[in-house]
Design a protein that fits this description.
single chain, 108 residues, alpha+beta, five-stranded antiparallel beta sheet, 2 helices, 5 strands, 39% helix, elongated
């Protein structure tokens, strides 16, 4: 019985040390993100659509909505918006999805 109690103490101590180490790692990650992550100024800029590239009369734009990047194209009066996201399909299941939407603008 004494060896069981000793083993239980060692296991409890080890578990406590692992939990403390995880806490320090979590605090370190949060600190690094706050220190080296994008500034509020950069986040504000990322919310404004910016040109990625242009070719053949079409322009590709991107913007960030605090959770993911969104891309859309504009060709003349037609705008095509593409959203990439991850869909949860059950326990331990996820799949990448893409959603496209085309809008006809004012044609002149």
């Amino acid at each position: 019985m004494n060896t069981f109690m000793d083993a239980l103490k060692v296991t409890g101590t080890t578990l406590l040390l692992v939990l403390i180490a995880c806490l320090f790692i979590l605090v370190g990650v949060v600190f690094l993100q706050a220190t080296f992550g994008p500034s509020e100024e950069q986040r504000a800029k990322d919310r404004i659509p910016a040109v990625v590239s242009s070719a053949d009369g079409c322009t590709v734009y991107k913007f960030y909505d605090n959770s993911s990047w969104h891309y859309f194209t504009k060709c003349g009066g037609t705008v095509t918006t593409t959203k990439n996201y991850t869909e949860i399909c059950g326990k331990g299941c996820s799949r990448s999805r893409t959603e496209n939407m085309t809008t006809e603008g004012n044609q002149q």
